[in-house]
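User: I'm putting together a small comparison set for a docking exercise, and I want a reference complex before I start. The sequence is below, and the ligand is adenosine-5'-diphosphate. Could you produce the 3D structure with the ligand included, as structure tokens?
Assistant: Of course. I'll restate your input first, then give the structure tokens for the complex.
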Amino acid sequence: MTAAVDPEFDSFIVTAPNISSWLERRKDNPSRIELRGIWKQRWVMLRGRRLTYTKLQGDWDRDLEQGTVCDSGRIILTPEARIDPDDEGNAWGFKIVAKPGDEPWHFRASSEEEKRHWLTAIRNCVDISIWLQNYQIGAVLGGGAMGVVREWMNKKTQEKRAIKVIEIMKLKKPENAKTEIEILAHLSKNTTHPNLIKCHRVYEEVNKVFLIFDLCTGGELYERIVQERFSEKEASILIRKLSSATGELHRIGILHLDIKPENIIFQSPEDGGQPILTDFGLSQWWKSEEDTPMDAQECFGTPGFASPEMLSKGQYYPASDVFAIGAILYMLLVGFQPFRAKEAEEIIRRTVKGDYTMQGKDWDRISHDAKVLVQRMLEKNPRKRITIAEILEDPWIKACEKEDGTKAGKKNQLHDR
Ligand SMILES: Nc1ncnc2c1ncn2[C@@H]1O[C@H](COP(=O)(O)OP(=O)(O)O)[C@@H](O)[C@H]1O
Ligand SMILES: [Mg+2]
């Protein structure tokens, strides 16, 4: 079978076909000879790679549940699937073999157009599985609320990527996955910022979404904070890059809203490895303050990093991302969170009250300028909080920018302008 589309798809979002209609189906070898060669109307569905037929209009799973699967069937199309013309020469007929050695399934459409519609959908689906087959799934890289992220290698070129698999049905809010995909598509078209994750392609099946990212091999910022103490210079450089990436997001109309050490990963394990902001699972579109939903019921984000306005009123602004970066800066300087407590409720209460301290021996060795920036970023009132533009001009940030002579640092400086 020839591929209908290039296996290296051009489009960013590739959606597996989801079509259904009445087709006629013929059994090859029914046990009763008088039924041989008889065409019967069946409801045929192709959802992702799964092709089913049922006697009544509906889903194969329903038949299975109701115990009426005898007049229905299911096959999973494989990369070796074949589509051939009908043996009896029916112009609108075609036969499908899901994998080598399987019995063929014979179908007959009611028009040329309907036949073409079905063949295109089936070919697209097989092309996608051929493309997925070129890759080999590797080790688990991490997991969070949305799904598991694994290493993924192109068997032909040995090129490695990361793949995030989201199972839509398992999500509390499936609409978050939709927003994440739309935002990643927007990012891929509108920015090449070196500290924002690059997503290459999104492949959607009916219940699963596969997101293909650049592979980052340096681990999470979280692990680095736990393992080592950052110098002020290292902290300043990291906060500048993170603020620059966040500013770029805001410029193109996106609020991240879940900036935290687990969602910042390093491109490579080396010391100079670029920090990369990832995970747009809670991100939202941002136009202006007037558009912000004021839903007092809904608090969201991750306690410890989510801002007081998010936690108490469900409000979010660009300033909310600044607060989260402020909590990270605090952690980089002393190794623990500003609003720490065993229970999430207590963390939330402290955040909303602005109840944190910069006293004690951990803070004695920290410079005045660093402390001032922490305070300005953790300001309770979003309207009084320091802005991204001001952070990038802050004396403590500026002082270290000059010393960051790495290629990555220079690239960032260009972006900051
Ligand atoms: N491109 C990537 N390269 C390497 N590891 C990654 C990549 N993307 C995510 N991870 C790892 O997987 C974890 C979960 O990914 P994330 O996108 O944050 O999913 P979730 O929405 O489930 O939190 C991250 O915290 C990180 O450790
Ligand atoms: Mg995450």
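The first helix runs from residue 60 to 66. The chain has three domains: 14-132, 142-214, 221-404.
User: Thanks, that's exactly what I needed.
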